[in-house]
Design goal:
This protein is mainly beta and 308 residues long. It is built from 2 helices and 20 strands. Helix 1 crosses helix 2. The N terminus and C terminus are likely disordered.
Protein backbone atom coordinates (compact mmCIF):
# COMPACT_ATOMS: atom_id res chain seq x y z
CA UNK A 1 0.00 0.00 0.00
CA UNK A 2 2.78 2.42 0.88
CA UNK A 3 4.64 1.64 -2.34
CA UNK A 4 1.44 2.22 -4.32
CA UNK A 5 0.90 5.56 -2.58
CA UNK A 6 4.41 6.72 -3.48
CA UNK A 7 3.93 5.69 -7.12
CA UNK A 8 0.67 7.61 -7.21
CA UNK A 9 2.44 10.66 -5.84
CA UNK A 10 4.86 10.38 -8.73
CA UNK A 11 1.86 10.54 -11.05
CA UNK A 12 0.71 13.75 -9.36
CA UNK A 13 4.10 15.28 -10.03
CA UNK A 14 3.90 14.30 -13.68
CA UNK A 15 0.57 16.11 -14.00
CA UNK A 16 1.78 19.37 -12.50
CA UNK A 17 3.91 20.74 -15.39
CA UNK A 18 0.93 20.43 -17.76
CA UNK A 19 -0.94 23.11 -15.82
CA UNK A 20 1.94 25.13 -14.43
CA UNK A 21 2.70 28.75 -15.27
CA UNK A 22 5.53 30.86 -13.84
CA UNK A 23 7.71 29.04 -11.33
CA UNK A 24 6.50 29.61 -7.79
CA UNK A 25 8.92 29.57 -4.88
CA UNK A 26 8.55 27.30 -1.93
CA UNK A 27 9.29 29.35 1.17
CA UNK A 28 11.45 27.43 3.65
CA UNK A 29 10.96 28.71 7.19
CA UNK A 30 13.68 28.15 9.76
CA UNK A 31 14.88 28.89 13.26
CA UNK A 32 18.37 28.90 14.74
CA UNK A 33 19.53 28.73 18.34
CA UNK A 34 22.55 30.16 20.12
CA UNK A 35 22.52 27.68 23.01
CA UNK A 36 20.54 24.58 23.88
CA UNK A 37 19.65 25.07 27.54
CA UNK A 38 20.75 28.49 28.76
CA UNK A 39 18.92 31.54 30.20
CA UNK A 40 20.82 33.82 27.80
CA UNK A 41 19.96 31.76 24.72
CA UNK A 42 18.58 33.49 21.62
CA UNK A 43 17.07 32.41 18.33
CA UNK A 44 16.74 33.71 14.78
CA UNK A 45 13.68 33.36 12.55
CA UNK A 46 14.40 33.28 8.82
CA UNK A 47 12.92 32.43 5.40
CA UNK A 48 14.57 31.07 2.25
CA UNK A 49 13.08 31.64 -1.21
CA UNK A 50 13.87 28.51 -3.25
CA UNK A 51 13.63 30.15 -6.68
CA UNK A 52 15.97 33.08 -6.07
CA UNK A 53 17.77 31.24 -3.24
CA UNK A 54 17.78 34.33 -1.06
CA UNK A 55 17.58 34.31 2.71
CA UNK A 56 15.69 36.89 4.77
CA UNK A 57 16.34 37.05 8.49
CA UNK A 58 13.09 38.27 10.03
CA UNK A 59 13.88 38.49 13.71
CA UNK A 60 16.38 37.78 16.48
CA UNK A 61 14.79 37.10 19.86
CA UNK A 62 15.77 38.76 23.09
CA UNK A 63 18.04 36.85 25.45
CA UNK A 64 16.12 34.11 27.19
CA UNK A 65 13.94 33.01 24.27
CA UNK A 66 15.15 30.07 22.20
CA UNK A 67 13.41 27.87 19.62
CA UNK A 68 13.93 24.20 18.80
CA UNK A 69 11.61 24.04 15.78
CA UNK A 70 9.12 25.94 13.63
CA UNK A 71 5.87 24.99 11.87
CA UNK A 72 3.65 26.72 9.33
CA UNK A 73 -0.03 25.82 8.89
CA UNK A 74 -1.70 25.58 5.47
CA UNK A 75 -3.25 29.05 5.98
CA UNK A 76 0.14 30.58 6.85
CA UNK A 77 0.07 30.78 10.64
CA UNK A 78 3.54 30.32 12.12
CA UNK A 79 4.37 28.55 15.39
CA UNK A 80 7.51 27.53 17.25
CA UNK A 81 8.41 25.27 20.14
CA UNK A 82 11.14 26.45 22.48
CA UNK A 83 12.15 27.88 25.84
CA UNK A 84 11.09 31.17 27.42
CA UNK A 85 13.33 31.89 30.37
CA UNK A 86 11.80 35.37 30.68
CA UNK A 87 8.61 33.77 31.98
CA UNK A 88 8.35 32.56 35.53
CA UNK A 89 7.11 29.19 34.26
CA UNK A 90 9.49 29.01 31.31
CA UNK A 91 10.35 25.42 30.43
CA UNK A 92 13.26 23.85 28.56
CA UNK A 93 11.86 23.33 25.03
CA UNK A 94 8.33 22.82 26.37
CA UNK A 95 6.96 26.30 25.58
CA UNK A 96 4.79 27.03 22.55
CA UNK A 97 4.84 30.29 20.58
CA UNK A 98 2.82 31.92 17.82
CA UNK A 99 4.93 34.12 15.54
CA UNK A 100 4.02 37.02 13.29
CA UNK A 101 4.45 35.73 9.70
CA UNK A 102 5.60 39.18 8.57
CA UNK A 103 8.38 39.91 11.06
CA UNK A 104 8.85 36.65 13.01
CA UNK A 105 8.21 38.21 16.40
CA UNK A 106 6.32 36.38 19.15
CA UNK A 107 2.66 37.40 19.25
CA UNK A 108 1.52 34.88 21.86
CA UNK A 109 3.01 32.14 24.02
CA UNK A 110 1.93 29.25 26.20
CA UNK A 111 4.14 27.53 28.74
CA UNK A 112 4.79 23.87 29.51
CA UNK A 113 2.46 22.48 26.82
CA UNK A 114 3.64 18.85 26.77
CA UNK A 115 1.30 16.79 28.99
CA UNK A 116 4.22 14.41 29.66
CA UNK A 117 6.48 17.27 30.77
CA UNK A 118 9.24 16.20 28.36
CA UNK A 119 11.35 18.21 25.91
CA UNK A 120 9.84 18.74 22.45
CA UNK A 121 12.28 18.90 19.57
CA UNK A 122 10.16 18.52 16.42
CA UNK A 123 7.04 20.33 15.20
CA UNK A 124 4.92 20.30 12.03
CA UNK A 125 1.40 21.37 11.09
CA UNK A 126 -1.24 18.68 10.70
CA UNK A 127 -3.96 21.20 9.80
CA UNK A 128 -4.92 24.79 10.65
CA UNK A 129 -6.13 23.61 14.06
CA UNK A 130 -3.61 20.95 15.03
CA UNK A 131 0.14 20.40 15.04
CA UNK A 132 2.20 17.28 15.66
CA UNK A 133 5.19 17.46 17.99
CA UNK A 134 7.88 14.90 18.76
CA UNK A 135 9.86 14.59 21.96
CA UNK A 136 13.61 14.22 21.98
CA UNK A 137 16.84 16.10 21.56
CA UNK A 138 19.54 16.39 24.17
CA UNK A 139 17.19 15.45 27.00
CA UNK A 140 17.87 11.84 26.04
CA UNK A 141 14.42 10.25 25.82
CA UNK A 142 14.93 6.79 24.38
CA UNK A 143 11.16 6.26 24.11
CA UNK A 144 9.89 9.50 22.53
CA UNK A 145 6.18 10.15 22.24
CA UNK A 146 4.12 11.85 19.55
CA UNK A 147 2.12 14.83 20.85
CA UNK A 148 -0.81 16.58 19.16
CA UNK A 149 -1.18 20.30 19.93
CA UNK A 150 -4.77 21.46 19.45
CA UNK A 151 -5.67 25.00 18.38
CA UNK A 152 -8.92 26.93 18.26
CA UNK A 153 -10.33 28.50 15.10
CA UNK A 154 -8.43 31.72 15.80
CA UNK A 155 -5.12 29.87 16.09
CA UNK A 156 -4.80 29.95 19.88
CA UNK A 157 -3.55 27.04 21.97
CA UNK A 158 -6.27 24.85 23.51
CA UNK A 159 -4.57 21.73 24.86
CA UNK A 160 -2.27 18.86 23.91
CA UNK A 161 -2.75 15.10 23.70
CA UNK A 162 -0.24 12.28 24.09
CA UNK A 163 -0.72 10.05 21.04
CA UNK A 164 1.66 7.37 22.26
CA UNK A 165 5.20 6.10 22.04
CA UNK A 166 7.06 6.15 18.74
CA UNK A 167 8.97 2.96 18.00
CA UNK A 168 12.31 4.23 16.67
CA UNK A 169 14.52 1.65 18.38
CA UNK A 170 17.45 2.04 18.81
CA UNK A 171 17.13 5.76 18.17
CA UNK A 172 15.46 8.66 19.86
CA UNK A 173 13.76 11.60 18.24
CA UNK A 174 16.55 14.03 17.64
CA UNK A 175 15.80 16.35 14.77
CA UNK A 176 12.43 17.06 13.25
CA UNK A 177 9.11 15.81 12.00
CA UNK A 178 7.94 16.68 8.48
CA UNK A 179 4.73 16.13 6.54
CA UNK A 180 5.38 14.88 3.02
CA UNK A 181 3.36 16.07 0.00
CA UNK A 182 1.32 12.85 0.00
CA UNK A 183 0.34 13.34 3.65
CA UNK A 184 2.81 10.91 5.20
CA UNK A 185 4.87 11.92 8.23
CA UNK A 186 8.59 11.34 8.65
CA UNK A 187 10.85 11.92 11.63
CA UNK A 188 14.63 12.11 11.93
CA UNK A 189 15.78 9.84 14.73
CA UNK A 190 19.30 9.57 16.08
CA UNK A 191 20.60 6.03 16.45
CA UNK A 192 23.94 4.87 15.09
CA UNK A 193 23.51 7.72 12.60
CA UNK A 194 20.50 9.68 11.47
CA UNK A 195 17.59 7.55 10.31
CA UNK A 196 14.30 8.58 8.73
CA UNK A 197 11.18 6.80 9.95
CA UNK A 198 7.65 6.98 8.62
CA UNK A 199 5.07 7.34 11.36
CA UNK A 200 1.29 7.15 11.44
CA UNK A 201 -0.35 9.55 13.94
CA UNK A 202 -3.10 7.04 14.70
CA UNK A 203 -0.50 4.43 15.69
CA UNK A 204 2.95 5.94 16.45
CA UNK A 205 4.22 2.58 17.72
CA UNK A 206 4.11 1.22 14.16
CA UNK A 207 6.89 3.55 12.92
CA UNK A 208 8.76 1.97 10.03
CA UNK A 209 12.38 2.62 9.11
CA UNK A 210 12.78 4.23 5.69
CA UNK A 211 16.43 5.15 5.11
CA UNK A 212 19.69 5.80 6.92
CA UNK A 213 21.00 9.25 6.02
CA UNK A 214 24.59 9.09 4.81
CA UNK A 215 26.66 12.11 5.69
CA UNK A 216 26.75 14.58 8.54
CA UNK A 217 24.92 13.38 11.66
CA UNK A 218 22.21 15.04 13.74
CA UNK A 219 19.60 16.40 11.38
CA UNK A 220 18.07 19.43 13.07
CA UNK A 221 15.42 20.37 10.51
CA UNK A 222 13.43 18.86 7.64
CA UNK A 223 11.36 20.67 4.99
CA UNK A 224 10.17 20.03 1.45
CA UNK A 225 11.00 22.20 -1.54
CA UNK A 226 7.77 21.56 -3.42
CA UNK A 227 9.00 23.34 -6.54
CA UNK A 228 12.48 21.86 -6.91
CA UNK A 229 13.64 22.38 -10.48
CA UNK A 230 15.28 19.01 -11.04
CA UNK A 231 18.36 19.18 -13.23
CA UNK A 232 18.98 22.89 -12.71
CA UNK A 233 20.92 24.75 -10.04
CA UNK A 234 21.19 24.02 -7.19
CA UNK A 235 19.73 20.59 -8.00
CA UNK A 236 22.00 20.03 -11.00
CA UNK A 237 23.94 17.15 -9.46
CA UNK A 238 21.44 14.64 -10.81
CA UNK A 239 20.31 13.07 -7.56
CA UNK A 240 17.37 15.28 -6.67
CA UNK A 241 13.71 14.40 -6.84
CA UNK A 242 10.83 16.83 -7.02
CA UNK A 243 9.64 17.73 -4.46
CA UNK A 244 13.03 17.70 -2.74
CA UNK A 245 13.47 16.86 0.94
CA UNK A 246 15.83 19.41 2.48
CA UNK A 247 17.67 19.03 5.77
CA UNK A 248 19.55 21.33 8.10
CA UNK A 249 22.28 19.58 10.07
CA UNK A 250 23.15 20.64 13.60
CA UNK A 251 26.87 19.82 13.32
CA UNK A 252 27.20 21.80 10.10
CA UNK A 253 24.35 24.09 10.90
CA UNK A 254 24.63 26.85 8.31
CA UNK A 255 23.89 24.77 5.21
CA UNK A 256 20.87 23.14 3.59
CA UNK A 257 21.18 19.69 2.04
CA UNK A 258 19.08 17.70 -0.38
CA UNK A 259 18.37 14.21 1.00
CA UNK A 260 18.09 11.45 -1.57
CA UNK A 261 15.16 9.49 -0.17
CA UNK A 262 16.20 6.33 -2.04
CA UNK A 263 19.87 6.14 -1.05
CA UNK A 264 20.13 8.48 1.97
CA UNK A 265 22.89 10.50 0.29
CA UNK A 266 23.08 14.21 1.17
CA UNK A 267 24.14 16.98 -1.24
CA UNK A 268 24.62 20.63 -0.27
CA UNK A 269 22.22 22.98 -2.06
CA UNK A 270 22.46 26.28 -0.14
CA UNK A 271 25.10 27.80 2.15
CA UNK A 272 23.62 29.95 4.93
CA UNK A 273 27.02 31.12 6.16
CA UNK A 274 27.14 34.90 6.37
CA UNK A 275 23.37 35.13 6.73
CA UNK A 276 22.85 33.58 10.15
CA UNK A 277 24.68 33.84 13.45
CA UNK A 278 23.83 30.38 14.82
CA UNK A 279 23.11 26.82 13.74
CA UNK A 280 19.80 25.70 12.26
CA UNK A 281 17.54 24.15 14.90
CA UNK A 282 14.39 23.64 12.81
CA UNK A 283 12.80 23.96 9.35
CA UNK A 284 9.36 23.83 7.76
CA UNK A 285 7.58 24.80 4.54
CA UNK A 286 4.20 24.95 2.89
CA UNK A 287 3.45 25.10 -0.85
CA UNK A 288 2.82 28.49 -2.40
CA UNK A 289 -0.84 28.91 -3.49
CA UNK A 290 -0.28 28.00 -7.17
CA UNK A 291 1.65 24.88 -6.23
CA UNK A 292 -1.00 23.84 -3.71
CA UNK A 293 -3.76 24.11 -6.32
CA UNK A 294 -1.76 21.95 -8.72
CA UNK A 295 -1.09 19.29 -6.10
CA UNK A 296 -4.75 19.13 -5.14
CA UNK A 297 -5.79 19.00 -8.81
CA UNK A 298 -3.42 16.11 -9.46
CA UNK A 299 -4.71 14.24 -6.42
CA UNK A 300 -8.33 14.81 -7.54
CA UNK A 301 -7.64 13.44 -11.02
CA UNK A 302 -5.97 10.34 -9.60
CA UNK A 303 -8.85 9.86 -7.19
CA UNK A 304 -11.32 10.03 -10.07
CA UNK A 305 -9.30 7.44 -12.00
CA UNK A 306 -9.31 5.13 -8.96
CA UNK A 307 -13.13 5.26 -8.81
CA UNK A 308 -13.58 4.20 -12.44
Amino acid sequence: MKATRRLLWGAVLCLCPIFSGPVEATIIWGVTGSHVDNPIAQAEVFKVDTVSWTLTKLHTTAAGTNFSDIAVTPSGRVYAIGSDYNHVDGEYFKDFFQLDPEDGQVTNSWHGVNPRDQTINGLTAESDTSLLAVEGGSSGQTTPHLIRINLDAAGGYVDADDLGEIDTTPGLSDGDIVRSPDGSYFIAALGGGDDLYEIEPTDPSSASHMITVLGLPQIAGLAYDFDAAVGSAPYNFGGAASPALLAGVFQDGKKLYDVNTSTGAMTEVFDLTGHLDWNVFGLDSVPEPTTLVLLLLGATLIGAKRRK
